[in-house]
Amino acid sequence: MMGRLCTNGYFLVPLLGAWARCQKIVLWSALGAPFKRAGDGHFMSRGDSKVTIETENLRREFDSKQGKVVALDGVSLQVKEGEIFGVLGPNGAGKTTMVRILSTLLLPTAGTARVMGYDVGKEPERVRPLINAASGAERAGYDFITARGNLWFFSQLYGLPSEEAHRRINELSAMLGLESYLDRKFYALSTGYRQRVTIVRAFVNDPRVVFLDEPTIGLDVMTAISIREFLLRQAKNRGRTIMLATHNMSEVDAICDKVAIIDKGKILACDTPSALKRSLGAPALVMEVSPPPPPERLEMLAKLEGVKGYTSTIDEERGISRVQVVVNSDDTAQTVLEATRKSGMNVLSSYRQQTTLEEVFVALVGRGFREREHEVAA
């Protein structure tokens, strides 16, 4: 029964017991007691705020049959205490690789990464007591143990006294509306409540820095909102730094203080969501085209002067294609509309849309998330 832990990333099952023993040894040797709070190391001060995460020219390569694959290419960024920092990009952009390096699960090929002032490659034993991590893609729990039992087990990896662990579990569960489900077996929980357990697990050791990889993926709207509100309270009221790796643009827009847009392992832009959207100027042009044109017919849009990029999605139910074009002026929008009609495509309707982070990505890359992911897969 204890061998049925299902997880996709943050704990290596065969080494779990050994990791727990090593973790307690680290806590004893580094802190003098297994459950004393760790210090802040040599904090990097920038003005009035402390820099809790910092990378300089971070690079990570992987070997493949086709040769070297560069997952991160010269990434440099700073995240301050109490910030929710979004790393936004399509699948394959390098988000998860960055999180794994910063959470000491992967070594960089080159460059440096520091968390709470400690080098993650040279001083991982100093970093681990201060952080936690969770992924929306993992199923991190023993099926036949209760939610409470799972959370208590993970709390013991950080050497928390049992009484303190149960106090934190109850407190965090109440914040997420999980308290009525704590004594249910993990396998009996819905997807939304399993994810709430995962989120509580990420905060159970009272971490200074939390790394979350797609924490609301596949969740219903109300559960996602509940988790976002919880993350906001943890950052603003408790001063925690939260790094959120996601491709959910509305989530980043809703809760992140700053966002770094990443593509092909490179940071393309880094600023507040509002500043990034203001940088585009004119609102995007949206056209509803029927029947949906093949991708190659839309390529002519990129060749028009004043077009920064475009993306399209297909509405199967209505049988139309929704084409978003990022333009630099109102005149360009009119030119695009006329050119589309002249090309033979049937434009059912068109309107201007308030700028979103998707348009920012399109302007930087020339294509949307969907097109970029298809390119990576190819």
Topology:
Elements: H1 16-31, E1 44-46, E2 49-64, E3 67-80, E4 84-88, H2 95-102, E5 110-115, E6 118-119, H3 124-127, E7 131-135, H4 147-156, H5 162-175, H6 191-203, E8 209-213, H7 221-238, E9 241-246, H8 249-255, E10 258-263, E11 266-271, H9 273-278, E12 284-289, H10 295-298, E13 307-315, E14 320-327, H11 330-342, E15 347-353, H12 357-365, H13 369-377
Can you walk me through this structure?
By secondary structure, the chain is of the alpha/beta class. The chain folds into 2 domains: 259 residues, P-loop containing nucleotide triphosphate hydrolases (Rossmann fold, 3-Layer(aba) Sandwich); 101 residues, Alpha-Beta Plaits (2-Layer Sandwich). A hairpin with a 2-residue loop joins strand 2 and strand 3. The chain is globular.
- The run of helices and strands is HEEEEHEEHEHHHEHEHEEHEHEEHEHH
**DSSP strand (E) fraction?**
25-35%
User: What portion of residues is helical?
Assistant: 25-40%
Give the strand tally: 15
Text of the CATH class of the largest domain: Alpha Beta
Q: What is the rounded distance between the termini?
A: 41 Å
Shape: globular
Task: Evaluate the radius of gyration.
Answer: 23 Å
Here the CATH topology of the largest domain equals: Rossmann fold
| The number of domains | 2
Strand order of the largest sheet: 7-8-9-4-10-11
Q: What is the CATH architecture assignment of the largest domain?
A: 3-Layer(aba) Sandwich
The poorly predicted ranges are 1-39
Query: From the helix content, strand content and strand pairing, which structural class follows?
Result: alpha/beta
Largest sheet: number of strands, sense, barrel closure: 6 strands, mixed
Q: CATH H-level name of the largest domain... which superfamily?
A: P-loop containing nucleotide triphosphate hydrolases
